[in-house]
Amino acid sequence: MEILFRDKSLIPIWNKLLNGERLTFDDGLALFRTNDLISLGKMANWFSYQKSGDAVYFVLNRKIEHTNICVLSCKFCDFAKKKGEPGAYEMTTEEILSKLSSGIREVHITGAMPPDWKWERYLDIVQSINDKFPEIDIKAYTAVEIDFFHKKFKKSIEEILIELKNAGLKTMPGGGAEIFSERVRRLLFNQKIGEKSWLEIHKTAHRLGIPSNATMLYGHIETLEERVKHLIKLREAQDETGGFLTFIPLAFQPGDTGIKPKNNFTSAIDDLKTIAVSRLMLDNFPHIKAYWVMLTEEVAAIALNFGADDIDGTVGEEHIAHDAGAISPMKLAQDRIIKIIKEAGKIAVERDVFYNPLKIYGRNIIGKIPYLNSIPIYHNLKIDSYFTLPLFPHRLGEMMSNGYIDAGLISLVDYLNNKEKLNLSRWCLSSREKVQSVLLFSKYKLEELENKKIGITDETSTSVKLLKVILEKKYKINALFEEFHQPKISFQEFDAVLLIGDNALNKYKAQNPEFNYKFDLAEEWFQWQNLPFVFAVWVERKDLLPNLSDDIIKTVELNIQKNFDELSAIVKQYRFGVKLTDEEIIEYLKGFNYKIGDEELSAIRKFEELIRETK
Ligand code: SF4
Fold first, then answer.
1. Nearest atom, ligand 1, residue 76 CA
2. Which domains does the chain carry?
3. How far is CA 9 from CA 13, 74, 139, 609, in A?
4. Which of 58, 131, 247, 477 is the most core-located residue (most Cβ within 10 A)?
5. Are strands 347-351 and 55-59 parallel, antiparallel or unpaired?
6. Per-block average pLDDT, block size 10, for the chain (615 residues)?
7. Rounded to the nearest whole angstrom, what is the distance from the C-alpha of residue 240 to the centroid of ligand 1?
8. 254 CA to centre of ligand 1 in angstroms
9. Residue 352 and residue 61: Cα distance in Å, rounded?
């Protein structure tokens, strides 16, 4: 993509991004200080496209603030009251339940910290919602609240989180981070936890399998340097755990806080810059949210072309922001959100709390597997009037089967299950011998896995079937399978674990002290069947108009050819998140075959036959 930079000092930063290099503190500061807003937005939009394609996510959600009675008195807070003060309130579990209804997919629960609630009351809220509305994902309690529970109820952070998880907690919100600066903390919220505790609580949650969000409160007394440092600290934490789902910059609402004059809110330029810089600095965060409640609908809509790929949701009640003067309406209807996203030239994707797609509001969509191994097909793939949506293979198969996606590379098993709706085209993702990115890490040899517990990633359908076929038909082994959701960083509870894609690739050469053995499933298959293994195939919906289908086929063909000719230049852009040198990436990609030939067709037939014979 060409950008005509007015601020030439941005050119080296753009080159770094094109070469897959991480941005530094100085780069972050230069991005905040530039007046070349349009170039900044284009860079961030490009970066967002690499992660999320044309998708913008939203969720049908409800926000509940169960009480505003708080033992603390943070200077920037217009929400909290003392017990007995006019306007102070506490909600019972029944009142909370009465605010929910079927159709809502996510409830976001936070609140103030009352002096006299018992631990059981917090657990009861989560458990009761989970019992009455099992389909609603519960995102609850910021790190500040978790720390409050830990101190008040004399339980370790782990105990608090495990009890909440057992009651039904799925993820944690990112609030309470404010800005990671001891200077600001002392001035504005000196009773609240600082960066060390906030980060430690989130990392503990990630280790326990509870993903979370992260925030930054900006536009008060912080400096630009403090903003960049905040982003870098979050990036480092994400390198460690991979457990953050999304980052949400929160624009400060002055209200009657007295920190700034009432109407001295952040400018739209500052909001857009902060979204864009966050997208570019947080290269390891999957999503950046434009939180419309605080930004306003108008700014949030523009932010979707400044690096944001999430607009939050239909929300519900949002007392903290509104009591401090936010001007957005209390409820933004679903169709209004969809309209905003469409007007921004993106596809609206309704999601759950983990960003699994539930519905897509748009047409002409090409599905994309977001792994390194598919870049020869997808790099610079532009099909006229088509949008691109990256999804994990299994989700892609589901969305294609539901008719949301027109064409793309999908997991072989999903094609086999939907043959009546899909045409097989001439491309695939197949490998002879080693593939390096479909791996079983195990404490035991394959022949010793009888009745052992194997963790399987929910990203794949084909690799799981392949593993089952190999164990059952080749080794006569019956194992116990348990699905887990990525990101997951500890696999202690399993005897073996199946990983695919870039997660597997990153572990391929690394030391994995948890497991003694590593098995490459393509190699196992090849040694057994003397055939390549076909992991994914390019398909198109059968009801696609013939001329559209022809266009897609021709474009993909030319694209693959061009990308292979320029592979050494292209791979540089894909270094983010992959722990391989350029040479190793090229060697890895050359290990794949992208065209379906007679051998691949025989391999597909053989695999289909074996699946039918497997339990
Ligand atoms: S920001 Fe949170 S912790 Fe601080 S006073 Fe307000 S409700 Fe209490």
1. 1
2. 8-358 (3.20.20.70), 363-615 (3.40.190.10)
3. 8, 39, 41, 60
4. 247
5. parallel
6. 94 95 97 98 97 95 93 83 92 94 91 95 97 97 96 97 97 94 91 93 95 96 97 97 95 80 84 98 97 85 97 67 50 78 94 94 92 92 89 90 92 94 93 92 96 91 95 95 79 91 85 87 96 95 81 89 90 85 92 94 97 88
7. 29
8. 15
9. 9
